[in-house]
């Protein structure tokens, strides 16, 4: 019978996860293990790291944000979770902050700005159509 200690409690290679060098602002791909009908498969979640909390201790977490179908999706992953297959750093970036929560509001503002421009152009097209319809109702004077 094997004895359970802190070192062999999880099936995760702690040294490998501890050595991962990513921080807020980097783009990473997290491969999560998902159980379906008794089989395990890996599913990718690729996005921007908003923050990393608690350093490299056992309760360390990191938050990843991506935009899927125009909706912002965030997931918080435990660094040493056995449900994570692997973590790949795709793009490194330089940021002046350790927590990038302001990106949530920035994304909302950009989306609202796009929607405003779309609705304005739609309204202007409708006005043009109304003017054309009114012009057709009245016969032209020659």
What does this structure look like?
The chain has about 140 residues and is α+β, with helices and mostly antiparallel strands. About 30% of the residues lie in helices and about 35% in strands. A hairpin with a 2-residue loop joins β1 (about 25-35) and β2 (about 40-55). Strands 4-3-2-1-5 form a 5-stranded antiparallel β-sheet, with helices on one face. The protein has 2 domains: about 1-100, SH3 type barrels, CATH 2.30.30.790; about 100-135. The model has no long low-confidence stretch (mean pLDDT about 80). The radius of gyration is 25 Å and the shape is elongated. It starts with 13 loop residues before the first helix and ends in a 5-residue tail after the last helix. The protein has helices at about 15-20, 100-135, and strands spanning about 25-35, 40-55, 60-70, 70-80, 85-90. It is built from 2 helices and 5 strands; from the N terminus they run αβββββα.
Task: Please outline what is shown here.
The chain has 142 residues and is of the alpha+beta class.
Largest sheet: number of strands, sense, barrel closure: 5 strands, antiparallel
CATH level 3 topology of the largest domain: SH3 type barrels
Helix vs. strand class: alpha+beta
Using the 3D structure, state the CATH architecture of the largest domain.
Answer: Roll
Work out the strand percent: 25-35%
Number of domains: 2
Termini Cα gap? 104 Å
* Low-confidence residue ranges: none
Main sheet: strand order: 4-3-2-1-5
Give me the number of helical elements.
Answer: 2
Apparent shape = elongated
* CATH C-level of the largest domain: Mainly Beta
* Number of E-type strands: 5
Query: Considering DSSP H and I runs of 4 or more, what fraction of the residues is helical?
Result: 25-40%
Mean pLDDT: 80
Helix-strand pattern = HEEEEEH
Radius of gyration: 25 Å
């Amino acid at each position: 019978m094997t004895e359970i200690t802190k070192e062999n409690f999880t099936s995760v290679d702690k040294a490998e996860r501890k050595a991962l060098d990513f921080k807020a602002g980097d783009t990473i791909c997290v491969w999560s293990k998902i159980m379906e009908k008794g089989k395990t498969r890996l599913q990718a979640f690729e996005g921007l790291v908003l923050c990393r909390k608690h350093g490299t201790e056992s309760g360390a977490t990191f938050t990843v944000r991506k935009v899927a179908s125009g909706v912002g999706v965030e997931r918080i992953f435990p660094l040493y979770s056995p449900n994570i297959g692997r973590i790949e750093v795709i793009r490194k970036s330089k940021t002046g902050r350790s927590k990038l929560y302001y990106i949530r509001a920035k994304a909302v503002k950009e989306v609202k700005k796009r929607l405003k421009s779309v609705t304005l152009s739609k309204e202007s097209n409708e006005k043009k159509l109304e003017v054309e319809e009114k012009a057709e109702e009245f016969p032209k004077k020659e």
